[in-house]
Write a structure and sequence with these properties.
With about 525 residues, the protein is mostly beta strands. It is built from four helices and 40 strands.
Length: about 525
Amino acid sequence: MHQMWLRVVIAFGLIVFDDLLSRADDWPQWMGPRRDNVWRETGLVATLSSPPDVVWRAEVAGGYSGPAVAGGKVYVTDYVTKDNVKIGNFDRKQATGMERILCLDEKTGRQLWKQEHSEKYGISYPSGPRSTPLVHADKVYPLGAEGQLACLDAASGDFLWGKNLKDVYKTKAALWGYASQPLIDGQKLILLAGGPGSHCVALNKDTGTEIWRTGTASEQGYSPPVIIQQAGVRQLILTSPDAVYAVDPETGKQLWSQEYKGDNGSIIMTPIHSGNHLFVAGYNNRNLMLELSVDQPGAKMLWRDEGQRSLSPVNVQPFLLDGRVYGLDQGGQLRCFDIPSGAIQWATSRPLGDRKVGSGTVFIVRAGETDKFWMFAESGDLIIGQLTPKGFTELSRTHVINPSNNAFGRDVVWCAPAFANKRMYVRNDRELVCINLAESKWRRRGNRDRGFFSGMDDKWRCSCSPTLSQDGESRTGICTKAGCVECLWISFPLSRGRELDEWTTTRRGSSRIDSRERHVVHRLPAGFR
């Protein structure tokens, strides 16, 4: 009997140790901790459950901004209004409402604090903010759709400093609002502002004091800034509707520039750097491949505006993997093309359906160092897919949230999700949903397939001729009889964030595992009372 108890203690220890070894990452900004759209956590599901394992739901209002997850909190921005904002609004009629940032408890979805200010929207598709909050060093930086920038204490929401970019830099919001994503570099907060000589500005991240400003453009554009290492120096790459150019990130001094023409000001993607090449593209087949100098900062054009090459992304950031780019073209095709030739290897509409749809949107996040990807489609479906030079393979799919907005005559949800701590966080214009994507420990530990309890089943069998059923599978040797008094159960907590002293010993009338609580239960032999 002592040996049996020892085995159970060892089993518990292995489960806890396994949890500690599994990676857990925050998602503190747009495209994740490294701004590269890679989710590096381990211990995740290989097959999606249907319906999904919803941990919690929280009410939010309208917006396109994705959530940020950091330090046990979830940050999301929205817009509360009584006006009809589910419109194209290309004539820029005004809507009136409150722009907000909400801070939620990561475990429960409970609201911890909020900050809000009144805001008039005069932009196209005016449902709400576009930029994902940026969380850094105990501060959070929300950027509103009309250019209201703030720095808040991440824990309390206390206001530290703020700027209205339109007022400070004598400009107006672009047609689709302020939608670029601010970047932290050392002490600098770098972002697109607009106005004469201030297309991009660098501010002290702690005080908001301007460090430098650079560039003049017809409109801000929407392309997030990115820093690359090329020709032995750091180069801040900026894109406007008029040019692609590089500056010194410390001073804002221009290093080189190449002409670019963004139709309707629509340049959205972050430039992709691959070897000695740089790729940018936008709406209406406005694509550009540059060759970067290797001895000193500089660039020359290899080809531009060729509809039969590469792709023209709208809402989705393309992904670079092994010299090939995977992304959604403006026509709704998922494509793969080579850098630097731009030669298209394959194209398919399959993540979105049998037919192409204009501005079709599927956000793409790589699963660690694999060829698997987490893909969130505008239909509200989460997909696990495989992307290779040979094509796209759908491996699993489940519906996680309903589309609550519309575009081009169809229902859509155009909000990038966050992936953190083995969970997915995604919002529409009504709610933010937290989905558990942790791998079930029952399948990994303590069953016959892994053999840890092999040879113990007969000893653990009670007179009930027991079975355990989970996800349609049966496990013999575990009691499920309601009201059985022969069996004592230990429930091991599996979800990250639970304290170890929360595990409990209890008699259970049924051994079915509660998928929301993520507990696995192992029966102790009769006699341990």
